[in-house]
Write a structure and sequence with these properties.
Length: 379
């Protein structure tokens, strides 16, 4: 089965006067702080990440860009990933109390330097996040008024009772004269199909200069969820009074957390299978002694990239490699075939991309309910 390990995630929003924007996710696990970022220009990657306290004292610095080399995963996803290992106890306390800042640094001492900084804070909606949006001033907005503005959307969805929940952390869309009960409009739409999936007006009781948070939720159709999982939607938040001048928007993409799903492939345990299950299994395939490893991750466009390495695989046995979902019902485990990966098998390796995951399959991936089944066809 594919799984991931994480703790309580956090988010940080960063801006500067050049309208560079970034959004970060932080996960603390076994004394280590794992971090992930989307930046507004993936090709212009930051060189370092600094941690500091409220007084500006630097607590630590992590190199992010060494000799121009980054991992394949970071290049494909456009994410910036890393870990601060063995965080001292005193600094862990600052994290718990939300008294730590992070800064992304670009450039060197002999070049123009850019810095984005923000506070690390907890948000409840991160526990169910499936998608992220990095929101920037929309084309046609007032560049002077929107200077330094930005936002991040934390998006979750349910396929059982189709619905979408959007939480947006933002600043920069309020005019100077707006100080109480300011109406704003949140919209989720397909620009390609000119279709509005969600539109809701929300009043901000007391707009804050630093950060504001709004949450909206709506029931949707299964077709709307498919647009969401396939990266076809854009989320925006705008002033109701000046929607063209004061507006943030961003494409909905794979969630910001850096994560690779992996699984160990081994032969099935026949002792855990009853006679009825054995008869059913034999009608389709024979047990295999093949073993191996598999890796999967979601790319920026919402496609599932996979790599599978298999040992002791005999091509004479007509092997099958299938992505399945598994669940237990009444004490029995049943498998449902989702995708046949056999055509990508070559010399003990299978590499490829599954372009379209359904909303339910995406939920199963993040819940650790997907598996790979290796079997042989009977003559």
């Amino acid at each position: 089965m594919f799984h991931r390990e994480d703790g309580s995630p956090s988010v940080s929003l960063h801006q500067n006067n050049n309208n560079y924007v970034a959004t970060g996710r932080f996960t603390f696990h076994r004394k280590n702080l794992y971090y992930s970022f989307y930046v507004s220009d993936p090709l212009y990657r930051p060189r370092a990440l600094q941690f500091s306290d409220f007084e500006g004292n630097i607590l630590g610095e992590q190199a992010l860009f060494i000799d121009g080399v980054t991992s394949v995963y970071q290049n494909v996803t456009g994410k910036v990933c890393g870990v601060w290992r063995r965080v001292p106890r005193e600094y862990r306390r600052l994290l718990r109390e939300e008294r730590m800042f992070v800064s992304l640094l670009w450039g060197t001492a002999d070049q123009e330097q850019h810095i984005l900084s923000g506070q690390v804070a907890r948000y409840r909606s991160l526990s169910t996040e499936l998608f992220t949006s990095l929101m920037q001033p929309a084309p046609g907005t007032d560049s002077l008024t929107m200077n330094g503005a930005g936002g991040t959307a934390i998006i979750s969805a349910s396929s059982s009772a189709p619905s979408i929940h959007v939480s947006i952390v933002f600043n920069g869309i309020f005019s100077p004269e707006e100080f109480a009960d300011v109406p704003i409009v949140v919209r989720l739409e397909s620009l390609e199909k000119q279709q509005i999936v969600l539109q809701e007006e929300v009043k901000i009781e007391k707009p804050a200069h630093e950060l504001n948070t709004v949450e909206v939720q709506t029931a949707v159709s299964s077709a709307d969820l498919r647009l969401l999982t396939r990266g076809k939607l854009v989320v925006s938040i705008a002033s109701k009074k000046k929607p063209t001048e004061l507006r943030l928007e961003g494409k909905v993409i794979t969630r910001a957390t850096c994560e690779i799903f992996q699984g160990v492939l081994s032969s099935a345990d026949a002792d855990n299978t009853n006679d009825e299950d054995e008869d059913s299994e034999k009608s389709v395939s024979a047990q295999t002694v093949t073993s191996g490893m598999a890796w999967m991750y979601m790319n920026r466009d919402g496609a599932l990239v996979y790599s599978v390495q298999l040992d002791e695989l005999s091509l004479e046995d007509s092997p099958m490699l299938v992505l399945v979902s598994g669940h237990r019902s009444g004490g029995r485990r049943s498998l449902l075939e989702l995708e046949d990966l056999t055509p990508s098998l070559s010399s003990g390796w299978a590499n490829g991309t599954i372009d379209r995951l359904s909303p339910r399959e995406l939920e199963q991936l993040y819940a650790g309910e997907l598996a790979l089944n290796v079997a042989t066809r009977l003559e």
